Amino acid sequence: MRLDAYGQLRPSGPRGWYARRTEAFARTCPFSAAALNEDLLAAALFPAAPRRDARIGRHIAAYVGWAAAGDFRAAGSSGGLVSWAAAALLQEGLVDAVAHVGGTDDGADKLFRYQISRSVDEVRRAAKSRYYPVELSGVLQEIRAVPGRYAVIGVPCFIKAVRLACAEDPLLRGRVAFTLGLFCGHMKSARMAESHAWQMGLRAADIASIDFRAKDPARPANWYTTRIGLRDGGERRRDWWHMADGDWGAGFFQASACDACDDVVAETADVSFGDAWVEPYASDGRGTNVVVVRSPQIAELLERAAAAAALALSPVDAEFVVRTQAAGFRQRREGLALRLAHWRAAPRKRVAPAARGVPPRRQAIYGLRCAIARWSHRVFWLARRLRCPWLYLSWARAALRTYQALTYSRGRLGAAIDRLAKPGQA
Ligand SMILES: Cc1cc2nc3c(=O)[nH]c(=O)nc-3n(C[C@H](O)[C@H](O)[C@H](O)COP(=O)(O)OP(=O)(O)OC[C@H]3O[C@@H](n4cnc5c(N)ncnc54)[C@H](O)[C@@H]3O)c2cc1C
Ligand code: SF4
User: Fold this and answer.
1) What is the C-alpha separation between 21 and 240, in angstroms, rounded?
2) How far is Cα 331 from Cα 390, in angstroms, rounded to an integer?
3) Residue nearest to atom 1 of ligand 2 (CA)
4) Ligand that comes closest to the CA of residue 133
5) Counting C-beta atoms within 10 Å of the first and last residue's C-beta, which end of the chain has fewer, N or C?
């Protein structure tokens, strides 16, 4: 897999390899119509899970909370529960290693990659959300080569890919003991990091490390700040709100596959973690997770840790979990149905295509988001090629102004759109 001109990972191989169709590949690609969907996979994996919900899948329990023990919460992007759970699996001897995403510090062309951590220290060092293209091939090879029990952390389509690979390969199936899912809005290209660097007066080559969610307990959790560590030892910070492309929902640098995604919460993972994007948690800068549990062993682990006050967990229902991801579910239910209806060769999804019933203004929002995602790659490519950051940044500011006017009625343009929109059509 190689980064392409848009900073997205693409397979690279001999021409004949691209041209050859194989049934096994079709069965293991998470976006293939020949692969089992999330419902079928979850039914086989979690047959005894007592709760079923069309949006968050089969589950045993759901919680809102954080890691109370140690500094997992302070070191994590959200409530630190993912790193805590990975560390607990290692400490309890339930796994020998964890496959997850850490920084590269060897001058590689990528800032992050999947790695295998075999100690709690290594797990802790790789905490934080990486909104950056990564791929699993190297760690899957290592899992196949080195006997042991592994936990794999990933966004929903990656966990589905691991499940499909396990279904094909008994060796892998015997070694992947647990999967830990991350809720997912969408994946970004490598250009987002470069764009943030540009907006701090830096070049991509200056970046030694990047944290897309530098934490400040004194400020709301949803005020994202990017912190860039510089090669000369210094650091720069900038709030997303002050960046030309700093509104996550506008879709800048989104991977195209995400337009065809219908799994928000990693429905095939043994346990899934996200951010509690509802009040009072969204305003709590220390960070708070929502958790959906599907494996009885993980359920027992979490309950035991909560009883020992290592975790602060309050039970919640599916409705609560869905509310924390309201925008993600709109985009991957109503928005997906609309996109599928307009797709010439629409992929087969669990959501049926439907163009009717979506108010015109919402249709415009979904359309604009797609356009921003597509054009951000192209305009950034041109600006990079011409070494003219202002070209991309001026375009991005205009795109963001239009998106926020349409979506939040912001500014004069927003007021004008409000006046134009007929009552009942907003
Ligand atoms: C691309 C992306 C989009 C996301 N979108 C949403 C969203 O829309 N809504 C929401 O609630 N949450 C979303 N999340 C999850 C959220 O950002 C937090 O990762 C999650 O809440 C866990 O926080 P934590 O403090 O418990 O994890 P931490 O303790 O910070 O640990 C995070 C763990 O995840 C691993 N990791 C980080 N990035 C990746 C990656 N790309 N692939 C595989 N492993 C990784 C790290 O190595 C670490 O082990 C997203 C995450 C990613 C990577
Ligand atoms: S939005 Fe869906 S397709 Fe895109 S990275 Fe997340 S899980 Fe994968």
Assistant:
1) 43
2) 30
3) 186
4) 1
5) C
